[in-house]
Structures are given as structure tokens and as C-alpha cells.
Amino acid sequence: MKIHEYQAKNILREYNITVPRGEVATTPEMAREIAASLKTRVVVKAQIHAGGRGKGGGVRLAASPEEAFEAAKGIIGMNLVTHQTGPEGKLVRQVLVEEAPEIEKELYLGLVVDRSRERECMVYMASEAGGMDIEEIARTAPEKIVKAAVHPAIGFSPFQARKIAYGLGLDKSLSAQFSNIARSLHRLFVEKDASLVEINPLVITADGNLMAVDTKLNFDDDGLFRHPEIKALRDETEEEPLEVEAVNTGVNYIKLDGNVGCMVNGAGLAMTTMDLIKLAGGEPANFLDVGGGASPEQIEKAFRILTSDPKVKAILVNIFGGILRCDRVATGVVEAASKIKKKLPMVVRLQGTNVEEGRKILQESDLTFEVADELYEAAQKAVELSKR
Ligand code: GDP
Ligand code: MN
After folding, report:
1. Distance from Cα 79 to the centre of ligand 1, integer Å
2. Fewer CB within 10 Å, N or C, the chain?
3. What range does the domain containing 231 cover?
4. DSSP letter at 25?
């Protein structure tokens, strides 16, 4: 799960990491008031769940409350396009107005999970070339990125912070501050079940202190049940609407770019089905695992989600009935299809528990669909229908 920059900064504050003073505004008038109360030069920043805002025109400095008003007027309501939003961009609904420190230098500091075989642990990444071009640096000058792995059993060690500080070329006067930030980030990561924490830029201010000017926190969805305070920060307007519906229905749905919609039970079978659609020359429109215990109601909702994607041209239902019985699936599909106006060509492959009952339900309905016994045959048929 992603959260907004201003929410992430509130969490950094809890961990005693210095961030600029500021508040969120939803109107230019509010932005003016916040700027006036801060009594200093401010920066007005678009709050969307994507980075690269600076280059996209979503971050503006303002020397006076009046300028803050103008900046907010320009940003709120804009469709902000950055390299992370995709070409369709994102509508900006709110801005963060905060004090803008004099910046001496911009650093990068992140903590991620490195899943590679050699590491399989959390790794600090840091660079003295922080700011807006860190992706470029990572690609063209990876030697400028300092890394330090954190042993899962030992945890954070102060020597690692010193090692990173040295790699960043930090002045001795900053090493204590830096160690505290590095330690806090690690604690935050573990305590909050984060999947990514990043400060970019972490700045050295003109008065010689470290401050987190921008930050990004992502959380592990499977850890959210332990953190109601994090769950409460969810902003559904920033998420793919069909994925939000799927979360609320309790099925695993990820929207993709193709046009063959799939409904499958089990993540492994869903992955295989997507592979076979590709092998047959098509593109899957989604990953959808309805799970083992889905009720006909959940199947019905899943089917609706799947067909609401305007890109979907054909549907492949591939169910291997184990715990999930084929007749339940059939009932759900028939219910859903009878309520949906748009009729899409469909291929159904059912195998396993109660398969005969399932087929009977489908055949007795007024649905038109093709039946396949083998999985690859099913994928081929669905791909062919999607191309008609
Ligand atoms: P991002 O582009 O979405 O990562 O947004 P950032 O918050 O990182 O802002 C991009 C850039 O704007 C930063 O790298 C800074 O150069 C600049 N910037 C952001 N906030 C401030 C500020 O408070 N003061 C100054 N001088 N520059 C800032
Ligand atoms: Mn940034």
C-alpha cells in the first residue's frame, strides 16, 4: 500500500526524523493561509501516489503567501504527468505547503528488501547524488550508490551507519544526526511492516543540518491487519478503481494491459493461464485469483470486475475444482453474466470437484460459451476470440 508524502512525513516525525513544518491544503486560499502562518518561503507540492513530481511541474517554490496561492491554484486540479504516472497522468486533489529550507546538498537514502539469492535481506541504499535524477544515477553510475546489507538476526548496527556516512562523504559534524536517521528508518521499516522507505532528497541545509525534504513509504499489504493506523491512511482515489473493488470483495485482482480477461482459482494456476495466453499469441487483461473458498457471490463480483475493464474482448474461465466446487463457480458466472449487459465471448474450462453439476448449470443457462477440456486449448480459443 502506498501513502501520500504528507502522511509519510507525519510518520517520520514520530520517529524523530526532522522534516519541514507544513500542512495540507485543498484550496489555493488554504495554501495562502498556511504559507502566512509559516512566516517563511514555502514550497507547494502536489500530493499524488507517484514520484517525479518536480520534473512534471508539481513542486513549486513560493516566496510569499500570494505566490503560494498562485502555485496552489496552478497545481490543484491539474493532471500531473510524471514518469511514474504513465501518460494518462493523475489528478491532483491536494497540495502540501511547507517551509522551504536553503538546500546545500541533496542526498538519497533508502531501505529496501533485496530478494536476490545472495542477499535475501534488507539493504540500505545511499547516494551523494540525491534529488531528482537518482534513477538515472542508478543506471549510468551505479558506483555512486553505497549499499549496506542488514542482517535479519543481528539487525541494524551503528558501524553500518558510519560506513554509509563515510561513503556519502559526510562531514563528521553530521555523522551523529545521520546515524539517528538511519537507525530510525530501520526501526520504522520493521515496526510498521514497510516494503520500502525512501528519503529523496535527504538534504544538508545551509545551517548544517539534515532534513527529509521528500519521503516515500510503501507498506506490505499482508502486514496491514497489524497496523490499523496505517490502513486508515489509504486513499482509494489514488488506486486503480477495479483493484479497490477487488480488495473489498476479497479476491486477488491485478489489472494488466491485454484484452483476454481471466478468472482462475489459485495463484499458480492463474500465472500458468497467463503464460499460456501469451504462448498462444495473446495478452492477458488481468491476473485474477478467486481463491479456494469463494462463494457464488464472490465469483459474481469477480466476474463483474473482470468485465468492467473496457479493454477485455474475451473471457477465459479456468477452474480446477478442489475445495472450490465447479457448481459454485458456474452459479456465480451465470448470475453475473445475466446481470451484465455487455456480452463477451467466453471460453470455460472446468475440471475437478462437481464438474458435471457445473457444466449442467452452464448448459442450462442462456449463456453462450465455448467449452475446452485442455488448458492450452482453452487459451488458444480465448485468444482467437479476442482477436475477432
Ligand atoms: P519528486 O520530484 O516527486 O521526488 O518531488 P521532491 O519533493 O523530491 O521535489 C523535487 C525537487 O524539488 C527536490 O529534489 C528539490 O530540488 C526541490 N525541492 C523540493 N522541496 C524543496 C524545498 O523545500 N526547498 C528547495 N530549495 N527545493 C526543494
Ligand atoms: Mn523526491
Report:
1. 19
2. C
3. 1-20+103-238
4. E
